[in-house]
Amino acid sequence: MEISSLHQLFLRHPNAFTDSRNCIENGIYFALKGPNFNGNTFAREVLEKGAAYAVVDDAAHAGQERTILVDNVLNTLQELATYHRNYCKAKVISLTGSNGKTTTKELIYAVLSTTYSTIATKGNLNNHIGVPLSLLTIAPETEMAIIEMGANHQKEIAMLSAISQPDYGYITNFGKAHLEGFGGVEGVIKGKSELYDYLMDNNRYAFLNADDAIQKEKLSSHIKKIGFSQTDHEYYNIRMIASEPYVSLSFEGQTINTQLVGHYNFTNCAIAVLVGKYFNVPIDAIKSAIEGYVPENNRSQLIKKQGYEILLDAYNANPTSMKAALESFQKNTANTKILFLGDMFELGEEAEKEHQYIAELAKELGFDEVYLVGENFYKTTSQYPKFKTFEDLKAHLGTSKIPSSSILIKGSRGMALERILDSIYS
């Protein structure tokens, strides 16, 4: 079937899904395959559950009514998403970077949705499957679409850019994330900058943090850009006023008091201000949207309970975000400051060195107590309490009460360090 014909079916049934366990009635099922599963085998099941059509690439499952046989389901999903993106009139803003993508996406969404019909990537649907599914949520009336793009190896951002074809793009930062797949920090810079390559090749616009030396260098060429800076008056002037405990910033005579902690969240807020200003969102609407944004899902959540002040930042971690979190937390004025740090994943050959560095940084910054959790932190030469598994830490906390204090909890998603909360409160 031609993509244009499939798109006509999609317009009549505008819900695409790939998980047969979560069938969308009257939607279109895309039967993806992977190393350990074959979605084709569930085509009959989803049709019986109420799906309108099932797109398959295995002829053995294509004989039944309302199945559509294609050469490759994943390719078809991606091609349909691009076709739909161009069919609709929405401006597409694509975001990538090592840290802060999701928070930035949510802040920009909060700002733009005050004035425009806006959609944004849900959750972390930011890969080669999630980006197409996100694009397919654009409705004919949608005016703005914010698409988050994640990557852990070269050429992935190039592919996602080709699928989403953004009108505007922004890279939050270049940090020590996914070093194993990218092949080191230079690989990260090269891989993330594939978004800049797309924007430049297609005469599109880039949003810029002009105080980030790498961004400024990468965007010093012929690419069209809209930027902010605290000091360079060539760009919109957005300044950080405070970051303890919450970030406050100043723009055009307005003070914006956020509910986000840590100086590293300033740039996430500033880019949302910049995007809003560029798209003529009234300044009072920008202020209201950012001040009303409350982080969740274990991202920079500030929890005050039973005498504890806990900064829960356990959604993800890499050496860059870990360093920023520790340095910001060190400025906390609490009498007692305690760290719970979990392993950082996907660092490859750099894992031992980076975990040792973070352990030494924690000592240098002088926290009152530090608990290190995970196989990599367990291998460090730190004299702090080390626990190979979460269960080991939990057992220790069962016999050792944590005093009322200010606590930072940070680690990669796989560590699920939010589980510590029950042990702290008990």
UniProtKB/TrEMBL annotation:
Family matches, as InterPro entries: Mur-like_cat_sf, Mur_ligase_C, Mur_ligase_C_dom_sf, Mur_ligase_cen, MurCDEF_CellWall_CoF430Synth, MurE/MurF_N, UDP-N-AcMur_synth
Catalytic EC class: ligase
Family matches, as Pfam families: Mur_ligase_C, Mur_ligase_M
Catalytic activity annotation: D-alanyl-D-alanine + UDP-N-acetyl-alpha-D-muramoyl-L-alanyl-gamma-D-glutamyl-meso-2,6-diaminopimelate + ATP = UDP-N-acetyl-alpha-D-muramoyl-L-alanyl-gamma-D-glutamyl-meso-2,6-diaminopimeloyl-D-alanyl-D-alanine + ADP + phosphate + H(+)
Key word Cell division present: yes
Compartments reported by the entry: Cytoplasm
Alphabetized PANTHER family for the sequence: UDP-N-ACETYLMURAMOYL-TRIPEPTIDE--D-ALANYL-D-ALANINE LIGASE
Listed name of the protein: UDP-N-acetylmuramoyl-tripeptide--D-alanyl-D-alanine ligase
Native source species: Croceitalea dokdonensis DOKDO 023
